[in-house]
Amino acid sequence: QVQLVESGGGLVQPGGSLRLSCTASGFPFHTYWIHWVRQAPGKEREWLSTIAYNGAATSYVDSVKGRFTIPRDNAKNTLYLQMNNLKSEDTAVYYCAQAQDGLGRGRGTQVTVAS
After folding, report:
1. Hey, which residues does 58 pair with through a beta bridge?
2. How confident is the model at residue 11 (pLDDT cuts 50, 70, 90)?
C-alpha cells in the first residue's frame, strides 16, 4: 500500500523557517522523482518543487526559489522541504506527491505564516 505521510507544519512568523518531512512506504521510493505541492484556501493546488530519484536534479516554482530547498534521504525513505524566509502567502496545506500534479499525495500538513 502506497503511503506518504507529511509532518512538520505549524504556525510561524513571517521571516521564519520550517522543515517539513514526508515519509514514504509501500513503493520503491529511491526510484521515484518526488514532488511538493501546496493548496491555499480558495486556491488551486500549486506545484512547488521536484527532486530526481537520486537527488541529482531539483526544480522550483519561481515564487519559492532561493527560499525553499527539497533534500531527500533515500536510506530513510524521507523527503524534506526546508522553508526559509516564510511569507504570509506561503500559508497553505503542503503535500508530498508521486506526481507533479499532486496525484498520489499524502494527507498534507498545515503551514500558517502569521504574526
Report:
1. 51
2. very high
Give the pLDDT band (50/70/90) at residue 100: very high
| Residue that the C-alpha cell 503542503 belongs to | 94
Per-residue cell: 3: 503511503
Mean pLDDT calculated for residue range 11-31: 98
Sequence letter at residue 74: N
How deeply is 13 buried, as exposed, middle or buried, from its count of CB atoms within 10 A (0-12, 13-18, 19+)? Answer: exposed
- Burial of 29 per CB tally in 10 Å (0-12, 13-18, 19+): buried
Q: CB–CB of 22/82 below 8 Å? A: no
Which set of grid coordinates corresponds to residue 98?
508521486
Distance CA 18, CA 91 (A): 12
Total Cβ atoms within 10 A of residue 69: 17
Identify the residue whose cell numbers are 505549524. Answer: 10
Amino acid, single-letter form, for residue 39:
Q
